Amino acid sequence: MPGRNAGDAAPANRGGRGSAERREVRAAVARFLTAGFIALVLVATPVAFWIRDAAERHALDNARNVTQRLADRVVGPLITDQLIAHDPAALQLLDQRLEPWLAESGVARIKVWDEHGEVIYSDAESLIGQVFEQEEWARRLLAGGPATATLEPQDAAENAFETGSGELVEVYVRSTSQSGAPMIFETYSSGDGVRSEQQAVLMGMVPPMLLSLAVLQLAQLIPAVRLARRIQVHQAARTALLHCAIEASDHERRQIASELHDEVIQDLSGLAYALESVEGRGPAEQGPVFSKARSMLQDNIRTLRAMTSELYPPDLDELGLKASIARLEAPLVERGIRLAVDIPDKLDLDRDRAVLVYRVAREALVNAAKHSAAHSVKIRIRQAGQITQITVSDNGRGFNPGGPRPEGHFGLRILGDTIQQAGGGLEVRSTPGLGTIVTATFGVAAPALRFAGLPGPGAAPGQDVAAIPAQRGTAAF
Fold first, then answer.
1. Helix axes 351-367, 192-259, angle to 10 degrees
2. Eight-state DSSP code of residue 404
3. What is the C-alpha to C-alpha distance for residues 281 and 198, in angstroms, rounded to an integer?
4. What is the chain's Cα-based Rg?
5. Which residues have CB under 8 Å from 105's CB, separation 6+?
């Protein structure tokens, strides 16, 4: 998989990388503004309802206070014994006193009740003299309880004239007659005034509140953009360091492999030929000694050549990831281990992460060959969105993750630190007798910008791949 699977040339990527970084900043700003807008709605909605309720309570308080003053100053002094006895002259006098107030206040109905529930006065003449059962609230009001004011449709038995009028403001206040008898003064008025006051209060308070929150959001935007750019600079530096670390590691491996091949292995091979020559010409009694030494030397040469092969990284740009992993099969075949490879034909990986995928496969296969006593090993690579995962599983003897860490896994531990720096995670799951599973997960490219608590495009929803937790039966390396 040459080309983009193993990393394109750096100059060709710089323009695209700069464009991608700008898109990340714009996306982060968009997420910030979206989160701010959602917060604005979440804050403004309950506040608007609270203001609406407060305005309604204020309007009802005003209606109750006005009604109480009317009862104390106008109606109370005119509740005489003659009025209580339904004297026409007394009723007419109260009508005359209330007529101007009824015309200007918007009150639709007035009633005066005595302590027995009898209507002793109403602007609707047919109600005068009717008796209704007193409810508990009326008895409390007559006993000196607080006045009440409500806004609701009226459909009770005593509201024959108010039924179908929609929402009405119903006010009950306590008054007294000239003789000192407790009375209930009741008024009904249109609810339009309360709703108009609610609307006026909302229009007076909500826009300034929304404007203040919007200004606060915009004031935070500039520092947020600067923070996003600083984070992006640090991420770019981190990616560059990761690239340098991988390149340095590859260079060091090549140098070690070259020195082993050109010096140590060549010298040992020459020594093996010399021993073979001496073995044929030396004393017969020393033949077995030379033969054993030559065999041991040849075994060491084969081991060193295998180490050289493992150390020397393939050219992923030239061979591609799939072909490079296929080359790892030879040492397994020598040990009688079957290898199954399941890799998609198309993988979107830059070169650094292609190298990491290859290293995970190589280290896992080396450990399986040397320590697992497995009969088969499977490599599986999957890519979903911008998350890449490689899994290497074997059917070997496994180990207990809760016990002491097994020997020979230092390469995976070091590799796990490198993968974590690349924004991913490495875990090793194993069960005694059931084999071992090595899984590495990381993003396609450098860890994407994260902002306002939202995962960047390099992370799965709800998961930070840089901190994959170890599960039961899992050893994190």
1. 60
2. S
3. 116
4. 45
5. 66, 189
Cα end-to-end distance, the chain, whole Å = 28
57: three-class secondary structure by DSSP: helix
What pLDDT does residue 17 have? 55
Q: How many CB atoms lie within 10 A of CB 321?
A: 25
AA letter at 290: F
pLDDT means over runs of 10, the chain (477 residues): 40 52 74 82 84 84 86 87 87 86 76 88 86 85 86 65 70 88 87 78 80 80 79 76 74 77 79 75 73 82 73 69 84 85 84 82 85 89 87 88 60 71 81 89 53 35 34 37
How many other C-beta atoms are found inside a 10 Å radius of the C-beta of residue 11? 7
Sheet containing 387-394, strands listed edge to edge, beginning at the edge strand earlier in sequence: 338-342, 376-384, 387-394, 435-443, 425-431, 474-476
Q: Which two tokens stand for residue 288?
A: 């077995």
Q: Hey, CA dihedral for 128, 132, 134, 135, is it positive or negative?
A: negative
Residue corresponding to tokens 């006593």: 373
Phi–psi pair at 100, nearest 5 degrees: -60, -40
- The string of DSSP letters for 253-312 reads HHHHHHHIIIIIHHHHHHHHHHHHHHHHHS-GGGHHHHHHHHHHHHHHHHHHHHHHHHHS
9: number of Cβ within 10 Å: 10
CB 152 within 8 A of CB 168: yes
pLDDT at 125: 84
